[in-house]
Write a structure and sequence with these properties.
With 237 residues, the chain is an alpha+beta fold. Helix content is 56%, strand content 10%. It folds into 2 domains: 1-89, Nuclear Transport Factor 2, Chain: A (Roll), CATH 3.10.450; 94-237, no CATH class. Helix 2 runs antiparallel to helix 3. It is globular. Residues 230-237 have low confidence and may be disordered.
Length: 237
Amino acid sequence: MTKFNYGGQAVIEGVMMRGEHEFAVAARKPSGEIAVYRDKLNETLYGRLLKIPFLRGLVMLWDSLGLGMRALMWSGDTALEEEEDASFSGPIAWGTIAVSLLLGIGLFFVLPTVITTALDRFIASDFWSNMVEGLVRLVIFLIYLTAISFMPDIRRVFAYHGAEHKTINAYEAGAPLVPEKVTEYSRTHTRCGTGFLLIVMFVFILVAALFGRPPIVWRCSLELYSSLSSQAFPTRS
């Protein structure tokens, strides 16, 4: 099997996959028909810039976030295609994304820092203060994942996420990419971005514990960049 870079994510009623030069999104319409959108990646971003250390991380982070939002908005419009006056693009989409980002930053970055700052007078050192903050963030993240898994719409997205993993596992095993064969493979994958995010969180907790207690803005910014960067790179075959 020829080796190449690829990655993907679940979207609304579908999956987005990205290669070295192109990406494609497939989403299910209300009628059951599968709609497919395919486009080329930005050649400038995926050319020489990806060979420059450190800069490549920022480039991939920015483009992956933009690509993910494009895929989500397209899949949202596709899922609502047959409903009159219904659209997920425009102000509705960007408003939803903005609110989601603000809630995410507040819940996963600001809240743990505020809680730990309130407890600092009971903690003996900066090292343990950082450890407590990291553990609080990890607990909040796990509670969040568990809670949203009970929502029907999110469970549907998780199902597509699992289907993506099954397909990649089948592909890497050299099996035919047909439903009968793909269903035989695991819905978990060793290079899953969500799993990698947990590893990044553990590593960040240990590393950050050694750097004292910088201002809250710096801590939140660094934590946000570290977490988003774990989602920015395609799976490598």
